[in-house]
Amino acid sequence: MEEAVSRRQVEVEEMDGQLQEMYANRLIETIKEIRSENQEIIDRNREELDASYQKKVRSDFHYQTRSQIGKAASPVISVLLICFHIIFIYYYI
After folding, report:
1. What b/e string do you get for 6-35 counting C-beta neighbours within 10 Å, with b at 16 or more?
2. pLDDT means over runs of 10, the chain (93 residues)
3. What does the alpha-carbon distance between residue 88 and residue 12 come to, in Å, rounded to a whole number?
């Protein structure tokens, strides 16, 4: 009887080892799949963020450039307007 119990215990331990190995392999495969999916999401988000950032930088650069041109042109325009007023007053008064 002891021998039958001992044999049964060995069978259970062997099955347990096989099941542990099988589930460990499944777990490893599932983790690999999840990592792969997450990496794809990360890469996609990184590309979208980079594109959004580049667009924002370009937009800010164009705004700053236009603003600087406007600031640089402002004194010139002021002088031209003064000259125009002087000429207008001189000819029509």
Report:
1. eeeeeeeeeeeeeeeeeeeeeeeeeeeeee
2. 77 82 92 94 90 77 58 65 72 63
3. 109
Domain carrying residue 38? 1-93
What is the chain's length? Answer: 93
Q: How far apart are CA 17 and CA 75, in angstroms?
A: 86
Distance CA 11, CA 5 (A): 10
Specify the residue for token string 């164009």: 62
Kindly report the pTM of this predicted structure. 0.47
Enter the tokens of residue 23.
């589930």
Domains of the chain: total: 1
